[in-house]
Amino acid sequence: MMSDRKVERREKRMSQWDTVKKVCNYIRHYMFLAALSLLCAFVSVVTTLYLPLLTGDALDVMIGKGRVNFGDLKEILVQMGIMIAVTGISGWLMNVINNRITFLVVRDIRKDAFRKIQKLPIKYLDAHPVGDLVSRMIADVDQFADGLLMGFTQAFTGVLTILLTLVFMFRKNVWITLVVVFVTPLSLFVAAFIAKKTHSMFQKQSETRGQQTDLIDEMVGNQQVVQAYGYEEKALKRFDHINERLEKYSLRATFFSSLTNPCTRFVNNLVYAGVGITGALFAIQGRLSVGDLSCFLSYANQYTKPFNELSSVITELQNALACAGRVFELMEEEEEEDLAGENSRHGEGSAGKSVLEDIQGSVRIAEVDFSYVADKPLIQGLNLQVRPGQRVAIVGPTGCGKTTIINLLMRFYDVSRGAIYIDGTDIRQVSRENLRSQYGMVLQETWLKDGTILENILFGRKDATREEAIQAAKLSHAHSFIKRMPEGYDTVVQENGENLSAGQRQLLCIARVFLCRPSILILDEATSSIDTRTEMKIQSAFQKLMEGRTSFIVAHRLSTIQNADVILVMKDGQIIEQGSHEELLENGGFYRELYMSQFVSE
Fold first, then answer.
1. Residue 8 above 70 pLDDT?
2. What CATH number is given for 2-331 in this structure?
3. 272-280 long-range Cβ contacts below 8 angstroms, 24+ apart
């Protein structure tokens, strides 16, 4: 699909450096905390590096029989105690600050990512698995948090330790320090080479983990259907296939990342050996005291230790950046355009923003073309004129474009060509929020949020009172079953209404519409899950609700739309017949075939 190809192109453009810059932009909001963390890291490193100097001085005042200077030794031991205390406190403060920065950044990323999802077009959400989006929001952000925390905690101190150790060593002896400097690039080269290999593996690992989450979400969420059709074995095979790929990428990522530590340790041992041999030669010549040699050996350890830690940090950061990259790819997606001010693209509509208020309900569809996939046309040259207050029923075989018309009216999708007008206003020049506030919609697929029954009825109108909600429930014939619930209107609805039947969920969705009293009504198989007796009552209530309101009714059961003012018969994206129920039956066309196929037994 077009959207998939666009996502692939963007994923290729999202480089590791782009990800780093975006992470830095989030950290920039907490510069004070970052500066405080750096200060604590600096203090911790300086005090840690000062300890070997004190240790060397302590050795020098104790060398030789009967030559121990207890006065100087006592003073040095007090200084060492102070340095150790300062190191511990500054290190603890740094960890607290780094934790705070990390989780503030993660909070901001999750908030922005969730806000982005709210603004993404429906076509993007239709083209991407829900499980993959959930994996990016939850698992990938968690992985990124772990890597970022390790980066803050160890990268700051590691880099500072390396730099300041060199400063301390240069002050002591330039030649021994040069031995360290000449060997260091080899360690950096090895770490950089392995880091490039690990990033691609961690990226594939993260993508495969998202596919696995999507499959689990799909199979667990529809377990009844899976078991009813005996799909368990196929589901296991699909899961095993993805799991094997995840295993392959994970093992490769772990293998390459595990090479970093031993390789850098080997180079670091060369550094330590070089310092020891060179320092020993200087000591033999009398150009270096025993205490200074001890100090240099300690610095060699201090200098090489961050390289070992940084190798682990680099591995974690590769994983973190791969995960962060997937989240930022989502956040880089184009948002849904609220207004179609780009008239050159659509060719119609007046520039500027319009507002729909107190509309009469006239709807005109003019020469509309639309397709979900560019090379597969669905609707072509569609024209329709609906007068205010008319009840328009849309019927036809599956896939003919009935629900697509609803999607276009609601601007879930925008037309490819032509325009749709409400009271003479191009709906692309109206904000989606303003446009959708004019509609009341009941779909075949019900959705209830986590909350009480009352909160679900009030979902579309927060300012309504409890009494108004109860009245709406009575009109939709939901009041009787609600009163039988344990807490009545305060009964908590489980996730997506799992503690309610399909019919009860649909009645609550219908109650929402009765509460909103919209200007235009859209019913897409609104009573498909309701028993015949209750459906007759609701149809009667709908008749009252539709009085004076323009209404669009999508239905498969033709008995429910016989009282419609106009029935549109669709086939292959075109309106092939239109008229009243009686007129269409007399014409003996496609509608009569549909009608007789449903009622031939009668």
1. no
2. 1.20.1560.10
3. 272/297, 272/300, 272/301, 272/304, 274/179, 274/180, 274/183, 275/176, 275/179, 275/180, 275/299, 275/300, 276/300, 278/175, 278/176, 278/179, 279/173, 279/176
